[in-house]
Amino acid sequence: MEMNHVLIVEDDKEIREGVEIYLKSQGYVVFQAADGVKGLEVIEKEEIHLAIVDVMMPRMDGIQMTVKLREKYDFPVIFLSAKSEEVDKIMGLNMGADDYVTKPFTPLELLARVNSQLRRYRRFMEKLGDKEKTQNIHVIGGLELDEERVEVRVDGELVKVTPMEYKILLLLMKNPGRVFSADEIYERVWNERAVNTDTIMVHVRNIREKIEINPKEPKYLKVVWGVGYKIEKQA
Q: Is the confidence at residue 70, as pLDDT, over 70?
């Protein structure tokens, strides 16, 4: 079985080494970095499948690092954040992180998040590499999602989305006009019982920034207040 490579970017050496010991005991290959600058250097040199990134770090914080790595890489990023860093946590999700764990955390909680994100990413990459499936393109107005190529375009221009944004958009575009609650989106996309559905709100906001000309007056991705989200049918 192929071994997964996990990068831990954390300025607290005790936390960094404690997480490394636990992940190694579960069969992961682990790399360490003490700040975002070093983290990006490791990513350039090594094949990384998932990064665990602290929000607050010297030189380059976790948010800046995530913005940088998202220019080239799609692997999952899990944020580590203190409860007092709520604004940074939401900003991090908006900038490309996939999940977050609040300090203090248990090794079992972190491992569950790591395993879950890697499962989703593996399925996404398998679909990305599958060239034999029948072409399946969903078009709503100028918004186009190609399941074979795993691509999203707006008015013909390619839009870069994360694996989770892609899966949320695919669900909504397959069911134009239908309203999905945050809980239902979470359960359909994450394939598990709905928890922490605030993540859905952040991902939806991020999708809007990418597909809408004016995110404040969306043409495609609409909020039905108190109910959920939908992709608007186009005439």
A: yes
